[in-house]
Amino acid sequence: MQTTVVLIHSGIFFPFYINDCIKILQKNNIDIRLLLSKDLHKYINSDSDINLEVLEDYEDNYYKEYHIQGFSTLFKDKFYERTSSRFFILANYAEKRKLKSFFHIENDVAIFSDLTTEKKILDGINKEMAVVIDSDKRCVPSIVWFKDYNIINSLSDFIFINNTFTDMENLFRFFYSNKNNIINLPIIDSDEFDTDQIKYCNFFNEFNSIFDGAAIGQYLFGIDDQTKNTVGFINETNVFNVSRYSYIWEGSQPYMINRNGSKIKINNLHIHCKNLKQLL
How far apart (Å, rounded) are the C-alpha atoms in residues 280 and 23? Predict the structure, then answer.
């Protein structure tokens, strides 16, 4: 059975790298769902074999009434507001479509497998959600797994009430208060960075792979800054310094080389610079 991956863009301007994200997903046997404003459907490549949905069909009162406090709405097409309100859209879509065991990724994320092995593991651990935690203060929703819509409804309630925090802050706080239902995905193979509160190598032995919140993709490809070359950028928040490891590609699959010289499969990369074409 195909793994379902849901993409959402709620802005009024179309980010053309979404087409590249879709092409990368299409290299694998993935059921791709994209929720996009009807006015922007014309920008999707005509040869894209995806389930293209009208975002407006899934708006609710939360989505219409939500306003984040303390952050500029002029920045990048209401970026701070949209990154949070997308979860209201996702909850409604998942419930109406009766989705189960699916991933949501951000539009600048590259996925390097069909995720069937990862999905099977997640299905078997009796949790409702899996997230990427890369520090003691934030959760980067580059890739998130949901068992079904119920946990997203709870997340939506949490985000709507706590509208003075970013999506990364709220997801971390939601994770921290729901550890019985949510796991964090492994971002490193070693327990040397673990704390009493967070195990950053969580479930590594089961996955035998890691997930990228932002730091590895930023280091390898740079950040979203068109004024200079930012390849080699070191994320100041990530719990470990990604530059202390080396990275190789075998075909279209990236690996981290750990300190013992072993290869570790990287399931996804957050291409913060937005130039996903270089991965095609």
Answer: 8
